[in-house]
Amino acid sequence: MNNGAQDPDKKTITRFAPSPTGPLHLGHAYAALVAWDMAVEAGGDFLLRIEDIDQSRARAHWEARIYDDLRWLGLWWPEPVMRQSDNLQRYRAALEQLWAADLVYPCTCTRRDIQQAASAPHEGTPPHGPDGVIYPGTCRRARARFVPDPLPQDAALRLDMRAALDAIARRPFAAPLHFTETGDGSARRVTIGHDQAIKTIGDVVLARRDMGSSYHLSVVLDDATQGITHVTRGRDLYEATAIHVILQRLLDLPTPVYHHHRLIRDDAGQRLAKRDDARAIATYRDQGASQADIRRLVGL
Ligand code: GLU
Fewer C-beta neighbours within 10 Å, C or N terminus of the chain? Predict the structure, then answer.
């Protein structure tokens, strides 16, 4: 059983996982180069994954631009490239497994319902987790106490966090939930507490009505399928890692080492956004920048 440890003799496999929803900018270049450098230094592999689960925003021309910009940066990767839109059945199978274990439940709340229910008894802002307002549990409390078959299609599916953590704790030889973080320069063990996860994460969405899987479920399954040993990504995703470790444990998947790196910001200190064309890699290329210039610009 997976207990969050990494085999030191295992070949290092890193990945860059962009969404094809806009041009790659300096922040993406940095993320890709961090993953690339880590793989190269360890004599391992660098993989690319196209995170196109949100088909309403993914575009083929952005995907083509991703390949072009990354090749220009001097990166290469094994083909075929994994695309999330090809993995829908795998996501569904995992949802069915969690559904059969009575760990997910359908939720029909709108954003507004959640906001209202979450703020009702409180003064001020309702508590927030990695996905925004922590779900107040309306549909969990209202749900039927049996497992109807098949998996519902017409509702979002949420993880019952308390039931999930209880199920993990009940397993024989269950090790504490933890992961290794190396983003601060040295390896540190981060432990995920039961009560803390219920309070600060809550019942996250694992599938949306219009999208067969959420980011959290897809990323966990894809990293496992690609055999990723080291996940490098921006610090903005640090808080989401507890969700990923919980899902890995529930689905019996290995927990990679995590390396959350700094974010590249603009002159005003804001995180770069897809619409920030001024810092698109393509803009620097058009202006005659070299790969070394890009490395310098992102502080590598
Ligand atoms: N697709 C995500 C992004 O573009 C990256 C997710 C991850 O690295 O875990 O921000």
Answer: N
